[in-house]
Amino acid sequence: MTATSITQPAESVSMRPFFTIWTGQVFSLLGSELVQFALIWWLTTTTGSATVLALGTMMAVLPRIFVSPIAGALVDRWNRRAVMIVADGLSALAVVLLAVLFALDRAQVWHIYALTFIRASAGAFHWPAMQASTTLMVPQKHLARIAGLNQVLYGLAPIVGPPLGALLLGALPIQGVLAVDVGTAMLAIAPLFFVHVPQPERTPATDGAPQGSVFADLREGLRFLRGWPGMLMAMGIAMLVNLFLYPAMSLQPLLATERFGGGALELACLQSAFGVGTVAGGIALGVWGGFKRRTVTALSALALHGISFFVVGLAPTDGFPLAVGAMFLAWFTLAIASGSIIAVFQVTIPPNVQGRVFTLLQSGGGAMAPLGLAITGPLVDALGVRFWFVASGVAIAAIGVGAFFVPALLYIEDRATTAAAPGEGEPAHVGGDTPRVAASAG
User: Fold this and answer.
1) Buried-most residue among 35, 76, 139, 323 (CB within 10 A)?
2) What's the mean pLDDT when you consider all of the chain?
3) Which residue range forms the structural domain that includes residue 69?
């Protein structure tokens, strides 16, 4: 097993290379939102089944659980720029194949599932590669602001994507909408051929593990987590949150059609509220920076996120504007929570193992999502879509408030890692004896 040394950028380093790549991701996410909206609407109008929608979401979650851990170990070993190029290219190729099937009128529901699985698997490589690269391209003092900016990025595409998707579906066949995504993927890939992405230096093995063993890398990532009890506790909280969150996200089409009697425009409004809320939350975090203790910011925002979901579920049938407003607040607060905790990860986890740890956190955070999705379809078909939003809101708010009574979760920033990589010694104390804690972002 090889370890890596930690090299962080100087405070005066130019951030132009990072923003060149970041700009390409704006186009890629816009195209992805077009595809996501078009396919969800096709599934909704073709089947009208909550179970079908839940299974579609599950196809996006499974790679996070089973592919992400291996992907993280590989990202820490491979050239991260090449990983991002291949991941984006593979995702675009899958969209091309699906567009051909639609053009031939041969597309079926399982084709949508397959495409979703492939794109999610590619994302399992792209996301940790980009996050770990950010740590080595952005000075530490700017990481919190970049985390907020990333929330803006993740929200910009949903602002424009759903309304544009609804407009394009009225003017183009679905394969035409898919073709737009291929073009935006090319715009994201092109800058990666010209921008240098730093790599951590690898040093000789220190524990006798076989050189080049991916599974040895993975074991050390797991050992790193086992030595951080607070992080495991936070992963448990993330698993509980995701048990409710993922199904709620997959049910938005039925919320628009069944609860409020709407159509594509109403669904676009709900999804645009996600985008506007995410952008606003990201901007707020970037300007405000949160409370002095970032975990207080994250947990407070999480509790408000749950309350917002509760309001969405209680909105009457003629209260669609209220539902849209509550959906905006839900994603506004989640953007603040996610940005805050990701910034904590980036300053406390050594860059040389961030690929592994980020994906293990992602895998653990998503592990409960399939269970939630599996029970959601039959439960919602029996009790109605509003039930899940009410139950989700109560549960998430209770988790956010209850976490304030767990000292390890509050004091994560009182203890941070130095340059010690897994197998090279224990993390050093920065302040106090409070265990370090992190929560999975996804």
Assistant:
1) 76
2) 76
3) 15-195+215-414
